[in-house]
């Protein structure tokens, strides 16, 4: 594991403030909440005099186990250090009051992180499979051990963002941090149980996607308009987590879901095993990673533009 001197710089910023608020991205996922919750736990354990808060909506499944989100007043925010996790741009931070913090620092693993330059220290490790891994390395680089409570929270992000160690870059750090987590006595079974517990509604929705997706020239896609989502009893964010129903199909290079919200805006999730889908997401104003990216459309009837753009990308490789 490479030592990163920015880790010490960032810890010094934490030490300098009495009050700290941790911010994540819109539609927070397991990794985002994992980073918020583990950092809060780490600070509480090692700097018990500090006030530390997590703001935003959190990751629903994990909240009963790792703690609810905090209600943070404007006053607190304007007197705090803001720590931003798992997001590259200011615009995608869920609680936009972040701009009122006294100072902002950031942990991330996305490409082109902090183009606006709002963070005084930005640790953006694009080789990391999860932002939780970046925070694990921050803890270790600063000479702390990962406790059981911090470890379980970190593992949530590592396992969800890497698809249980399926989507890894070339470095071995995910395993090194996971090794320390295991040695902390973390109960991984508990995490898997709440993550993979399924319900009847989601089984039926997955069945619908599996039965109705279309394939055009190597691109599998499902269009879920609001009427369909209403019938299935799920919202567009939840539907967007089901894109991998179409994964690993022979002859399919990329798979995409289009899910429409009540106001007609469409959340698009793009996946692939080799193709660079981030390039396509960026063309439509989104972003993400090479094999997992997202964007939005104003009109569900425009879905074919994204599909055609992916087909173009397949032809160009
Ligand atoms: Mn992430």
| CATH superfamily (homologous) name of the largest domain | inorganic pyrophosphatase (n-terminal core)
Catalogue the unreliable spans. none
The rough form would be described as globular
* Residues in helices, as a percent range: 40-55%
Counting structural domains, the number is: 2
How many beta strands in the DSSP annotation?
11
Count of helical stretches: 13
> Can you list the strand order of the major beta sheet?
6-7-8-9-11-10
List the secondary-structure elements in sequence, H or E: HEHEHHEEEHHHHHEEHHEEHEEH
The CATH topology of the largest domain is given as inorganic pyrophosphatase (n-terminal core)
Q: Which descriptors would you attach to this protein?
A:
globular; about 325 residues; alpha/beta; 13 helices; inorganic pyrophosphatase (n-terminal core); about 40% helix; 6-stranded mixed β-sheet; binds manganese (II) ion; Diaminopimelate Epimerase, Chain A, domain 1; 5-stranded parallel β-sheet
């Amino acid at each position: 594991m490479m030592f990163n001197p920015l880790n010490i710089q960032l810890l010094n910023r934490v030490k300098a403030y009495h009050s700290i608020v941790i911010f994540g991205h819109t539609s927070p996922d397991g990794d985002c909440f994992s980073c918020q919750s583990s950092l809060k736990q780490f600070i509480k354990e090692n700097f018990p005099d500090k006030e530390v808060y997590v703001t935003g909506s959190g990751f629903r499944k994990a909240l009963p186990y790792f703690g609810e989100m905090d209600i943070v007043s404007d006053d607190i925010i304007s007197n705090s250090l803001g720590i931003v996790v798992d997001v590259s741009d200011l615009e995608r931070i869920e609680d936009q009051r972040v701009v009122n913090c006294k100072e902002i620092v950031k942990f991330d693993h996305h490409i082109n992180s902090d183009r606006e330059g709002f963070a005084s220290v930005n640790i953006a490790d694009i080789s990391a499979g999860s932002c939780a891994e970046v925070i694990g390395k921050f803890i270790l680089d600063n000479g702390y051990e990962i406790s059981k409570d911090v470890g379980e929270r970190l593992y949530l992000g590592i396992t969800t963002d890497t698809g249980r160690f399926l989507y890894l870059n070339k470095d071995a750090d995910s395993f090194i941090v996971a090794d320390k987590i295991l040695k902390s006595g973390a109960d991984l079974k508990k995490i898997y149980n709440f993550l993979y517990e399924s319900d009847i509604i989601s089984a039926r929705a997955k069945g619908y996607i599996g039965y109705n997706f279309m394939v055009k020239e190597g691109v599998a896609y499902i269009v879920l308009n609001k009427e369909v989502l209403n019938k299935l009893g799920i919202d567009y964010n939840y539907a967007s987590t089901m894109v991998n129903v179409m994964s690993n199909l022979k002859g399919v290079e990329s798979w995409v879901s289009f899910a429409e919200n009540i106001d007609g805006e469409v959340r698009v999730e793009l996946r692939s095993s080799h193709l660079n889908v981030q390039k396509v997401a960026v063309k439509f104003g989104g972003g993400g990673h090479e094999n997992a990216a997202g964007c939005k459309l104003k009109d569900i009837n425009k879905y074919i533009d994204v599909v055609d753009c992916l087909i173009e990308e397949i032809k160009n490789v």
